[in-house]
């Protein structure tokens, strides 16, 4: 991004020297600043689409991302009846969620490079088809081993939305818009598990825990039909400096089939390793580590421990557990987004205005400061309230506060990483899911060996300490990016 900023600036100065007005060449935003990236003159370029086509695509991809944690966590409130039916412990029952989470985390290592060469749409359609079959298999399985195997494929089949969804946002929206629209996307990502807790609790209570597999299968199948006919291809090859199109013309119909992308080369085995190459960049690895722990604390922790905690301490049934976890976090997330996306774009605009129209992605990180305090505070509140067995409203309030803080962190981190790197192959999903899946194995035993207050506070302190990486990026992030240069492994894609 720094490289593009410098080229845009010099390009504009060259045009001025030649006597040609800059806006005759560079396309500008509503504030008179050059658009980043520069769009082509092709109306089928996703950057040039009508607002309604962009919004419908954003909502479809966001809902796909929502379905990942939603379908993985739909069973969470029903661990107790499932465990009783299959003669396993509640902790063992939670493994079906953790195995889905980890497979959903590692699968984008494959989906991301394929989508960069052959397009986003084929991945969404193909992966969702796997998800439909896997959910149905879980519902039909008669043994605990069969359910675990099916749930592994559930993780694979629901991984595309979270794995490459942020790339679609970057395909359609300019840098100065990404805070707001990335915020829409992340609200869906975060609330998948929250809504699942409520819906799954009532499903298990009134029609049985097996329907916690069948209902997600039906929802994913219905959404697959909508995507098949209505989800367009967003991958487009252009010069980000000049906006010149680098691909043949295509019809509108081609956007809705599987011929909308002109592959500039074939997929190479080496492409799969690019996500690991990105870890050498501080602007990638530092926010990814911080976000991975934050997402685990502000969302997954409550999903994988709520059934055991609220069931044993407050003797809640499945529907009550679902409402306790889901409603508080859902409200917290929506309120948090009010201070996330719009604030992020505003902070970036003010910085750009004060620096001669040249933006700095690190400016967005200033908007994460409230999350540093609010997220760990909410986690500690829930842990302490569970430890002292306060009224159930205490831990519920703690979860809502933590979700509020997580949304502030999540939107700004996603927008920053998209702006700071020219590559769409980010290890966000891989590291986030890898950390999150471990929580189900050790957090309840950790709380039993110590106390809920101690266990939850330890994670909260770790999360706060990791914010040092974000502070370092605010201080030296731009210098590091300019010295290392942008990744060049996908220049020919």
Describe this structure in words.
The protein has about 500 residues and is mostly helical. Helix content is about 70%, strand content about 0%. The chain is built from 20 helices and no strands. Helix 5 runs parallel beside helix 8 (about 145-155), helix 7 (about 120-140) packs antiparallel against helix 11 and helix 13 (about 280-315) runs parallel beside helix 16 (about 370-385). The chain is globular, with a radius of gyration of 23 Å. The model is unreliable at about 10-25 (pLDDT under 50).
Secondary structure: elements and pairs:
Blueprint lengths: L1 H16 L33 H23 L5 H8 L3 H4 L1 H12 L1 H11 L1 H21 L3 H14 L2 H13 L5 H30 L3 H20 L43 H4 L4 H32 L4 H20 L3 H14 L14 H19 L5 H28 L7 H22 L2 H15 L1 H17 L9
Helix pairs in contact: 2-5, 2-9, 2-10, 2-11, 5-8, 5-18, 6-7, 6-9, 7-8, 7-9, 7-11, 9-10, 10-13, 10-14, 10-15, 10-17, 13-14, 13-16, 13-17, 13-18, 13-19, 13-20, 14-17, 16-17, 16-19, 18-19
Name its key features.
70% helix, globular, 493 residues, mainly alpha, 20 helices
Shape: globular
In this structure, how is the largest beta sheet organized?
Answer: none
Distance between the termini: 18 Å
Poorly predicted runs are 10-24
Could you state the order of secondary-structure elements as H and E? Answer: HHHHHHHHHHHHHHHHHHHH
- Helix amount, in percent? 55-70%
- How many strand units? 0
Beta-strand portion reads: under 5%
Number of helical segments with 4 or more residues: 20
Q: Evaluate the radius of gyration.
A: 23 Å
Structural category is mainly alpha
């Amino acid at each position: 991004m720094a490289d593009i900023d410098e080229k845009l600036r010099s390009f504009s100065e060259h045009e001025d020297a030649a006597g040609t007005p800059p806006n005759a060449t560079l396309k500008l935003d509503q504030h008179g600043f050059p658009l980043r990236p520069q769009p082509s003159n092709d109306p089928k370029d996703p950057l040039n689409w009508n607002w309604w086509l962009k919004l419908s695509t954003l909502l479809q991809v966001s809902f796909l991302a929502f379905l990942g944690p939603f379908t993985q966590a739909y069973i969470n409130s029903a661990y107790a009846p499932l465990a009783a039916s299959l003669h396993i412990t509640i902790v063992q029952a939670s493994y079906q969620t953790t195995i889905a989470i980890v497979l959903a985390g590692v699968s984008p290592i494959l989906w991301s490079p394929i989508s960069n060469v052959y397009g986003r749409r084929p991945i969404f359609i193909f992966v969702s088809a796997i998800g439909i079959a896997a959910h149905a298999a879980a519902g039909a399985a008669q043994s605990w081993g069969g359910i675990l195997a099916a749930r592994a494929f559930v993780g694979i089949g629901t991984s595309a939305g979270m794995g490459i969804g942020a790339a679609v946002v970057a395909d359609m929206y300019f840098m100065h818009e990404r805070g707001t629209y990335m915020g829409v996307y992340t609200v869906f990502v975060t609330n998948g598990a929250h809504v699942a807790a409520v819906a799954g609790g009532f499903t298990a209570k009134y029609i049985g825990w097996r329907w916690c597999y069948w209902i997600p299968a039906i929802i994913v199948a219905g959404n697959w039909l909508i995507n098949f006919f209505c989800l367009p291809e967003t991958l487009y090859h252009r010069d980000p400096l000049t906006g010149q199109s680098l691909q043949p013309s295509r019809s509108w119909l081609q956007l809705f089939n599987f011929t909308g992308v002109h592959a500039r080369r074939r997929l190479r085995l080496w492409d799969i390793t690019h996500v690991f190459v990105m870890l050498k960049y501080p602007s990638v690895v530092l926010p990814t580590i911080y976000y991975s722990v934050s997402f685990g604390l502000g969302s997954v922790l409550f999903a994988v421990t709520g059934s055991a905690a609220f069931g044993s301490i407050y003797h809640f049934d499945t529907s009550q557990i679902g409402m306790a976890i889901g409603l508080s976090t859902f409200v917290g997330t929506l309120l948090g987004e009010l201070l996330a996306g719009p604030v992020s774009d505003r902070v970036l605009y003010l910085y750009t205005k004060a620096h001669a129209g040249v933006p700095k992605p690190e400016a967005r990180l200033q908007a994460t400061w409230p999350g540093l305090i609010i997220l760990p505070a909410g986690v500690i509140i829930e842990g302490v309230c569970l430890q002292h067995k306060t009224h159930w409203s205490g831990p519920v309030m703690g979860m809502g506060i933590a979700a509020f803080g997580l949304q502030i962190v999540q939107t700004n981190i996603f927008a920053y990483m998209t702006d700071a790197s020219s590559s769409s192959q980010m290890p966000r999903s891989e590291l986030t899911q890898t950390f999150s899946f471990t929580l189900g194995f050790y957090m309840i035993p950790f709380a039993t060996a110590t106390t809920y207050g101690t266990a939850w506070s330890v994670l909260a302190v770790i999360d706060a300490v990791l914010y040092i990486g974000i502070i370092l990026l605010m201080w030296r992030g731009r210098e590091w990016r300019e010295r290392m240069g942008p990744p060049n492994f996908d220049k020919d894609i």
